[in-house]
Amino acid sequence: MSEPDITMSSEEIGLEEPIIESVSEPAPDLQEPDPVATLTSDLQRLQAEYANYRKRIERDRLLAHEMAIAALLSELLALLDDIDRAEQHGELTGGFKAVADQLNAITTRIGLEKFGSEGVAFDPQIHEALMHESSADVTVATATKILQSGYKYKERILRPARVSVTDPATE
Length: 171
What we know:
By secondary structure, this protein is an alpha+beta fold. 44% of the residues lie in helices and 22% in strands. The chain is elongated and about 90 Å long. The N and C termini lie far apart (109 Å).
């Protein structure tokens, strides 16, 4: 059995231009990519990726180093507080004073900073309020007593200063 012929001419369809039924293959690129240019661009991309990788690894290594130091210093804070209390009560004498001074010098050289002073405006970013009072002597919330000093290492607060806060009296 043969198939019926269902093709129509362009005149039978009502087109003015004849239909061209040819399947053309896409034209191949007239120029093939230069293998040297391709390899050069791949090499440049890989070099840039490697440079970025090295920078990222170095940044991560420094961050891990700083975090390890911060963790160690955080563990020493209780010891430093005990040394400060002993010094305030006059019990820091003799050889123990030399050890305490050396420990304070080492932590300072590493970058541990002690902060918190009386009479400064209360800042919840660096202060922890443990007591609260009201007084007409102040105009803004003020840290009037430092109950425990705060410590920071490279702009990172290891422990906020624990303070007594005095607010202005409301009438």
